[in-house]
Design brief:
mainly beta, Immunoglobulin-like, globular
């Protein structure tokens, strides 16, 4: 029988043996990601490609499904002004990103009308909409714009490393912008939008996948610039499944033609990385490399004695500045100027070898040549549209030739004086001096309609279109009444057009809403139009107005009163115009039209639901500006200037939350 002392001794032995056994087992190590960053060189010059190579590892093994944030800063900048903010994906699908947040980007002008592109020498604007379907997220919304040659044109953020922004559940709209300098490469440019936890330079990592949108950059010089010999470079390939041994996460950009010379710092950061970020430096230096010469010209097919616009702004110096542009036109004449823009008139038909020599401040020079074909006198060009197309039996079909263009006689554009229509249905040719005419087809079938235009010289241009004529009973849609639009009859205070048919009036605004109606049918119509606004719970009627005897191709505008005083802010309301039943109308979509109005609370400049530093920031950056070009959101009183009255409203409602 064991004594107490023997029992304690045995228990101690068991504990010691167990401890030894566990000590002999391999211990699981915490997987701590480590990020590293390198560049393709330690020094670059103007327009050279900067390669950014990052790796993400854990215990020496590569992590392929991560996302790495990258930031490039100029060390000589007086404040935080990043040159580039992007994110790079690995070779596998990224993990641990917030899929509840979506970003949509629309290029717009200052009036929030969507654009396909911008001219050099102007300001580009972008409607960046962030939709959060999950919990509130705090971070740094960043965007970088790069031209067709992968040169950064502008990088900015909403907030800063010291002031982050919270994106609540719902929709947030941000006005992003970037200058398009005169040297920007003509072609397809891209804006990249990211949401980081903070700046990569302080360890901020991506919260969502990078979103991008393309737009065009055109020359601001000349009527229709054509790209001739523009800068050729590989496009950026962010998020590629690269196996480049220099890095699993790769990106590149080109040094601008007018950089700040000195030292730059690049940062890379990733989720849970220790240390929080990796950094490296490189220099941008002037060199003895000759400049690069190039030019565009417009029109693309110039005529004798016509003005040709030449644009050499795509030329650049590796040393920062081009001082002279020398032109040899190939017709015996020459010009020398300090401006990249110039015009020339060729006085004879032919092909001319135009030579451009650019010289920089070194002075070093280079030459670019391009053949320019100059045409002689040309006839007018016929063109027309058929409305509606297809058409129906006995309808008054409209033929519109207003897009026909005059020819060239060597000194000017002789006007078109006659339009001869052969409708192809056996009726006599209809010759008129007007570009618009109407015709009734009395037979079913397909008819080739031919238009011949004649100018004051007697020169002709001809074109033809096939017109389909169908029974009205088989026509779908049978177009009669079309509600073509709903809008605001007069700009209210604080009205903010986000996108087509999407507005932001302030709570308390009382004004008028207009509805435009077009009769595109064949008979006179009478009907009523009801205007209502609705949200998820109710749909009040603003009023019903009658339209009497609206004739063929006639239109009218109806005006209704709307008061937003009792409406909840930060809520979207659908404003809908609905006609009464139109006899013979087979397309219900023709009888209804809607817009969205998001009512904002006082001082909530951006419509995000609260009055905070973002509202104050929009006021500050537009201080004392007139509208336009100032941001219309900042003009809360709608008086045309951003001033102390607007600031007072923000201050009076400071930190108020509209939910």
């Amino acid at each position: 029988m064991f004594t107490l002392a023997q029992g304690l001794t045995l228990l101690l032995c068991i504990v010691l043996i167990a401890s030894a056994m566990f000590a002999s087992l391999p211990m699981a190590k915490a997987l701590t990601p480590q990020v590293s960053l390198a560049t393709s060189s330690s020094a670059y010059s103007c327009m050279e490609s900067v390669g950014l190579y990052a790796n993400l590892t854990s215990s020496g093994s590569p992590i392929r499904n991560g996302v790495v944030a990258v930031e490039v800063d100029f060390s000589g900048a007086p404040s935080w002004q990043p040159v580039l903010l992007l994110s790079m994906k690995g070779s596998s699908n990224p993990s641990a990103l917030d899929n509840n947040i979506k970003v949509f980007i629309t290029p717009i002008n200052i009036n929030w009308v969507p654009q396909t592109g911008f001219e050099t020498g102007t300001e580009a604007y972008f409607n960046v909409t962030l939709i959060n379907s999950g919990s509130p997220v705090t971070g740094l919304l960043a965007w970088s714009v790069l031209d067709a040659a992968s040169v950064p044109l502008g990088t900015n953020t909403q907030g800063s490393p010291e002031i982050l922004v919270t994106y609540y559940t719902g929709e947030t709209t941000v006005l992003a912008s970037s200058s398009i300098p005169s040297w920007a490469a003509v072609g397809t440019a891209t804006i990249y939008v990211n949401l980081f936890t903070n700046a990569p330079s302080v360890g901020g990592f991506p919260l969502i996948n990078e979103t991008s949108s393309t737009f065009s950059i055109t020359s601001s010089f000349g009527p229709s610039a054509k790209v001739i010999g523009s800068i050729k470079s590989p496009s950026l390939d962010f998020g590629s499944a690269s196996t480049d041994p220099k890095g699993l996460y790769n990106a590149s950009y080109r040094v601008p033609p007018e950089p700040a010379f000195g030292t730059y710092v690049a940062y890379a950061a990733a989720l849970n990385a220790t240390p929080a970020y990796s950094s490296t430096t490189f220099d941008v230096n002037p060199t003895s490399t000759p400049p690069s010469a190039t030019f565009t010209y417009s029109p693309s097919a110039p005529y004798v004695n016509g003005t040709v616009y030449f644009d050499a702004s795509g030329s650049f110096s590796y040393n920062g500045t081009i001082t002279n542009y020398s032109w040899n036109w190939g017709d015996g004449s020459k010009n020398s100027t300090s401006s990249p823009y110039i015009t020339h008139v060729f006085k004879a038909q032919g092909i001319y070898l135009v030579q451009l020599k650019v010289t920089d401040s070194q002075p070093l020079s280079s030459i670019f040549e391009e053949n320019v074909s100059v045409s002689g006198p040309t006839p007018p060009v016929a063109n027309f549209a058929v409305i509606p197309d297809p058409t129906w039996l006995n309808a008054y079909t409209t033929f519109n030739a207003s897009t026909s263009t005059p020819g060239w006689n060597g000194t000017g554009h002789p006007p078109i004086v006659s339009y001869a229509w052969n409708f192809g249905d056996g009726t006599p040719v209809n010759t008129t001096s007007s570009s618009v005419t109407h015709h009734q087809f009395t037979k079913l079938g397909n008819f080739t309609t031919t238009l011949t235009v004649k100018d004051t010289r007697g020169l002709n241009g001809t074109t033809a279109l096939l017109v389909q004529v169908k029974n009205a009973s088989s026509f779908y849609p049978a177009v009669n009444i079309i509600v073509t639009g709903v809008g605001f009859a007069a700009p209210p205070k604080g009205l903010y057009l986000i996108a087509p048919n999407y507005y932001q009036p302030y709570q308390g605004w009382a004004g008028n809403v207009s509805v435009k109606i077009l009769n595109n049918g064949t008979t006179t119509e009478s009907f009523s139009v009801t205007l209502s606004y609705s949200n998820a719970t109710y749909s009040p009627v603003l009023g019903t107005l009658d339209v009497t005897n609206l004739g063929f191709l006639a239109s009218t505008v109806l005006t209704y009163s709307w008061n937003t005083s009792l409406l909840e802010p930060t809520m979207n309301y659908t404003i809908t115009a609905q006609t009464s039943t139109i006899p013979g109308e087979k397309s219900p979509s023709n009888e209804q039209y809607s817009i969205i109005a998001r009512v904002k609370g006082p001082g909530d400049v951006t419509g995000q639901g609260s009055v905070n530093g973002v509202s104050l920031h929009v006021i500050a950056v537009n201080w004392l500006k007139t509208v336009p070009p100032g941001d219309p959101r900042a003009d809360i009183l709608g008086e045309g200037t951003i001033n102390g009255e607007d600031l007072h409203i923000v201050a009076r409602n400071w930190l108020k939350i509209y939910r």
